[in-house]
Amino acid sequence: MKRYLLIALFAASAAQAQTNPYTDNATAIDQGRGLFNSTCTSCHGPNGTAGEFGPGLAIPGRTYARRTDTQIFDAIKHGIPGTPMPAHQGKLTDDQIWKITAYVHGLRGTAIDAPSPGDLAAGEAVFWGKGSCGSCHMVNGRGSIVGPDLSQLASLRKTNSIIDALTQTQHRVYGPGGAQPHLLTPLPVWPAVRVTTADGKTIRGVLRNEDSFSLQIMGLDQQLHLYDRSKVKIVYEPESLMPTDYDKRLSKQEFDNLLAYLTRLGTPLTPPSPSVKMPGGRDD
Amino acid sequence: MRLSIALVPSLLLGLSPAWAQVPDPLKGDPKDWLTYSGQYNSHRHSDLKQITAANVSRLQAKWVYHMTGQKDLEATPIVAGGVMYVSQYNRIDALDARTGNIIWQYQRQPIASGAQRGTGFWNNKLYVTTSDKHLLALDARNGSVLWDVAVHDGVQLAGQAPLIVRGKLIVSGNRPHGFIQAYDADTGKYLWSWSPIPAADDARLASWGGQKPDGMPIWVSGSYDPELNLIYYGTGQPEPQWAGEGRKGDNLYSDSIVALNPDTGQLKWWYQNTPHDTHDYDSLEMPVLVDAMWQGKPRKLLLQANRNGFYYILDRTDGEFLQATQFVKKVDWLKGWDAKGHAIPDPAHDPSVKGTTTCPSTAGATNWPSPTYDPKLHLFYFVAQEGCGINVRDTARNYAGTGYLESPDEGKSWQLFTRALDAFTGKKVWDYEQVTSHHYGPGLMSVAGGVVFSPEEFGQFTALDSKTGKVLWHFNTGDVITASPISYSVDGKQYVTIISSSNVFSFGLPDGGAK
C-alpha cells in the first residue's frame, strides 16, 4: 500500500513539473510569438511591453511570481484567480499554450532567446549599407568606435529594447529601482555631449565617463578627449546621436530584416565560470 | 568581591581605576570618535580645528588599510585613544590610527558580508553583531571575547551600530518586525525590548483597520539626550509595503520618530512623519539634537531631513511638531496637513499594477546616509535626491508585492546633491551637485575648521566649504563609497577617514604643514 502511495506521489509531482517540449525551439517560439500577438497583447502589450490592463512581461527590473515554464503554462491555461487574467483552457490547445510559454520565457531573457524572424543576410546588408549603423558601431571588429560595440547585442538586450533604440528618442534601459551598482564600470549609456575648450575649440561626441571634476569623451573624430570639468564648457545634448527614425527611413521589410540580424548578434550568455588558476609557480 | 580585589593594587598605587580613564562618549573629547554619529546628539561634527577651509587643499593620504575579504563596507569606524576599530558582522579589525597598521583582528566564523554600519565603544569594550543571532563584547585592548549572549527572542539584529548610553547597549532589528532591545553593556544581561507594534491594550492598535500590524524595521542607530534621558530612533515602513487597502488608518508606530527611556524602554512620545505609508518612506534618517532659540523661545529641538521630502523641526521634550519644510523640488504623496502637523496622504499616488508616479521616489528625497550639523553656522547638511519614481504592484489584491523604478523620463532621472539648509528655517543655503551620483552611497561629516566632507558614490572624497559649498579638495578613492567619514586626532595631528568599499583611507595635512 505504502509503495503504491509513493508511486502515486511521484506521478503527481511529475505532472506538476512538466518540461516544455519547445524550449529553445526557434520555430515553435516564433509560432508562440504569433499566438501571443493574436491572443495576449490587448492586455499585455506587444513584445513584452506593458499593455492597457496587464503588466508588461519583459520590463527590466520586474520580478516574477511565476518563474518556471510549468507555472507560466498553468497561469495561461487556468488563469490567475483574483486577477483579471482569464483561463485559456478550451480556447487554446495545450500544444499552443506550451508554444506561448516558450515565447514568454524567451521575453524574460534577451533577444537571442527569442530572435525576430526575417532575412538575415538582407538585414546585415541594411546594417552596413542603407542603415549606416557601422558609421558609429562595431560588430566583430568591423565598423567605428564612437558608439557601443554590438557584437553581443542580442545577448545583452531584449527585443523590445532594440526596437526602442531604433525608433524611440527616449530609449534608456532602466535597471531595477534602488539597486546600487557596487562597481566602478564604464558608463552603460552613450550620452551625446558638446564640449568647448578655453581656446574656443568644440568637440562633439559621447560621454564615456565623468565625475564632479573630470570628463572622458569619445569624439565623433574617433579620438579620446580627456578634460578638467572646470576648464571647459559642457553641453549635454538632450537626444542621443543615434537616429531613431529607422521605422521611417527603412521599409517595413528592411526594418524586419535588420531586426532579424540584430536579434541574433551574440552568443547565449553562459553563467560566470569559476576563476582559473594558471599553471606554473610565481615568477619570482 | 572579585572587583574589590582587582581594584586594590591600583588604589594602593594611588591610581584611579582603569575604567575612569577610558574615553567616555558623554564627555565627547573630539580626539576620539566613539559612537556611530560621533556624538550622542548626532551632529557628526568634529570640534578639531587643525584642518580648515584655508588649508584643506593640501590634505594628503596618510595611510590605506585593506579589509581582506570584504567589499561595500558601510561601517563608520570608531576611534578611541589612538586606535581605530573597523567592523563588519562577526568581525572587528583594530588599527593604529596614525599608521593603519593592524593591531588585532577578531573574526568569528563564518566570514560575513552585509550592510553592517559600525560598532560602539563603552568602558573599553566593543560590540559585535553576529550572523548567528548572537551579540558579544570584545576587550578593546586585545580583541578577547568578554561576553557572548544569544539575542533575546532568537531574532537577528540588523546592521546598525549599537548605541551605548548609561551602561545600556541599545540594538535593533527588522524581523519578524521592527524592534529595539537593551542589554547591560558590561555583562550582556538582557534588559528590555520595545516594538513599534502597538500592544494589545494600546488604543493605537486601531490605526491598522483591523489588519495585523507588521513591518516597521529599525535598521539605523539613534541619538541620545543625557539631560532628558531619552533615546531617539526612527521606525520603518508598515507591511505590506505597497498595499495599503487592508491596513486602513495611520498604521502606528510606522515611519515615526520615537523617544524612549533607555532605562525601561518605555515610549515617552512619538511623531509620525508619514501616516499610512505606501511608498516605503522609512523615518530612519538620523535625528539631530540641537538646543537653540527657536522663534524667540529656548527650545530643545530635534531636526530630521526625512525620506518623504520634508525637513522637520520637533520639540524633543514632548515631540511637539514645530515645522516641516519641503526640501526637494517636487513632493506629491500628500494632500496637506492638519493643524497638529499630521500629514494627509494622497491615495491617488498609491502604487498600482500599471505603476504610479510618486515624488519623491521610493528611494527617498534623502535616506540613511548621515547628515551633519555645524553648531556655529547653524547649518544642517545632508544628501538630497531630486527625482520621482514609479511604484508598481504585481496584483490588485491585498498583500501585493513588487517594487519601484526610477523616473521613466530621462530628463528627470535621480540626482544627488549635498545640500545645506538653515537649520532653523529649513531654507536652502547652498547646493553641491554630486555629478554621476544617482543612488545613495555615503553620508557626511563637518569639522570646526569650516569644511564639510562629502564622499560621492563613485569614489570621490570631496571637501566643501561649510559656508558656500565650494569645492576645496577632492581625492579619487577608486571604489564605491557607501560609508560616512569621521575625524579624530592622535599626537596633536588631525585625521579624516573614509572607507571606500574595502579600503580604509586616512588623510591629514603634510607633516609640518599644519597652521
Give structural notes.
The complex is a heterodimer of chains A (284) and B (515). Chain A is 33% helix and 12% strand. Chain A is built from ten helices and seven strands. Chain A has a five-stranded antiparallel β-sheet, with no helix packed on it. Chain A has a two-stranded antiparallel ribbon with strand order 1-2. In chain A, helix 2 (26-39) packs across helix 5 (94-108) and helix 6 (120-128) packs across helix 10. The model of chain A is unreliable at 1-15 and 174-180 (pLDDT under 50). Chain B has one domain (2-508): Methanol Dehydrogenase, Chain A (8 Propeller), CATH 2.140.10. Chain B contains one helix and 38 strands. The radius of gyration of chain B is 22 Å and the shape is globular. Chain B starts with a helix and ends in a 7-residue tail after the last strand. The A-B interface holds A 50, 54-55, 61-63, 65, 80, 82-83, 170, 172, 174, 176-184, 210-213, 229, 238 and B 71-72, 353-355, 361-363, 389-390, 392, 394-397, 401-406, 408-411, 433-436, 439-441, 456-460, 462, 471, 474, 476, 478-480, 482, 501.
Care to give the gist of this entry?
Chain A is of the alpha+beta class.
The succession of helices and strands of chain A, N to C, reads HHHHHHEEHHEEEEEHH
Q: Which secondary-structure class do the elements of chain B indicate?
A: mainly beta
Strand order of the largest sheet of chain B: 1-32-33-34-35
Report the biggest beta sheet of chain B as strand number plus sense, adding barrel if it closes: 5 strands, mixed
Intertermini distance of chain B: 52 Å
CATH-scheme architecture of the largest domain in chain A: Orthogonal Bundle
Q: Give me the CATH fold name of chain B.
A: Methanol Dehydrogenase, Chain A
* Count of separate DSSP helical elements of chain B: 1
Radius of gyration of chain B: 22 Å
User: What is the chains' assembly state?
Assistant: heterodimer
Strand content of chain A: 5-15%
The number of distinct β-strands of chain A equals 7
Task: Identify the strand order in the major beta sheet of chain A.
Answer: 6-5-4-3-7
Largest interface: A-B, 28 and 46 residues
- Helical proportion of chain A, percent range: 25-40%
The pLDDT mean of chain A sits at 83
Tell me the CATH architecture of chain B: 8 Propeller
CATH topology of the largest domain in chain A: Cytochrome Bc1 Complex, Chain D, domain 2
